[in-house]
Amino acid sequence: MKKTSLFWVLLWMVPFGGANAKAQPLTYQNSTQFSEDNMSKSLAWYTLNPHPMGSENQTKIAQSLEITLKKLGWKISKQRFKAQAPNLDSLRFGGTNKNDKEIKIVDGYNIIATLKGNENCSIIIGGHYDTKFFRDFKFIGANDGGSSTVLMIELARMLKKENFKMGTLGSCSITLVFFDGEEAFLPNWDEGNNILGIQDNLYGSREFVKKYVQEKSNIKKFENKPIHLTIILDMIGHKNQKLFMSNGSDNTYAEKFVLSAKNVDIKKSLLSMEDDHIPFKDLNIPYLHIIDWTNLKEWHTVNDTVEIISFKNLANFGQSLLTFLSNKRAENGK
């Protein structure tokens, strides 16, 4: 083992070393390209333990994300919110405490990183960094949560090197949002609403939109800049990667992304999905929702591990995303 590898292992064990352990920033090779090694090491950190919203491990993940992105030179804020969620300790949902109520208040944390652009527009790129709760096995979510998280961290490093031309998507202010609580606590997506009358999913993206998206003269803004486009990423790193942009994604930019993609299997789709793009869709904010909904054998199983991830695929996708951001902005998103 190289000395640098040992350093990484020791560094990444710190955030999970106990309740009083101090979170540390992740450290990266300063490669001029998307680094497979950087993302591999990030995913090893991400998959050490399950970390559903509200868990101690998720709090530590949030702390490390916050200080890592700050170290990379981004303006960072942490949105703390409280949400009603199914109480999995209650008897009804498989717990053992007969006195526990069926709904409890859970703390969530969105990590928001912004790189100021030169023009009066905003691009939001988001993905969830929580893992789904399973009582019967250890779910670490290498693809479902992990792949988009490590890609976005590496994207933060790479975007600091870019100098986009005026009039391009990349010349806008770019905000990376690591959403907490995309996953439902209950086994199925709609159970919370059907059983308890509460929405048990998309906690972080709903709270982000509620607090940070302002409307003036029918224009949706983030930090006083019109939101030109939102890009939501999920499950993008499978070794047999087949990506698509779900139904409702902005048609013009979907076509531009396909043309920008090099060595990436991606296409437009008529399949409608619910993911962190929905709160933006509900406000008529143009978006691209990019996901792999073909390779589902390991989805929400104990087998969603690092072994199913291709870091080459992730690097190719990251470079395609940079190429896409170098495209000229379409007028009014059309």
Automatic annotation (TrEMBL):
Superkingdom, taxonomy of origin: Bacteria
Keyword Protein biosynthesis listed: no
Protein name: Peptidase M28 domain-containing protein
Gene3D superfamilies: Zn peptidases
InterPro entries found in the cross-reference section: Peptidase_M28, QC/QCL
A GO MF label: zinc ion binding
Endpoints of the signal sequence: 1-21
Domain Peptidase M28: 110-324
Pfam families: Peptidase_M28
Coiled coil: none
Organism: Fluviispira sanaruensis
Keywords: Acyltransferase, Signal, Transferase
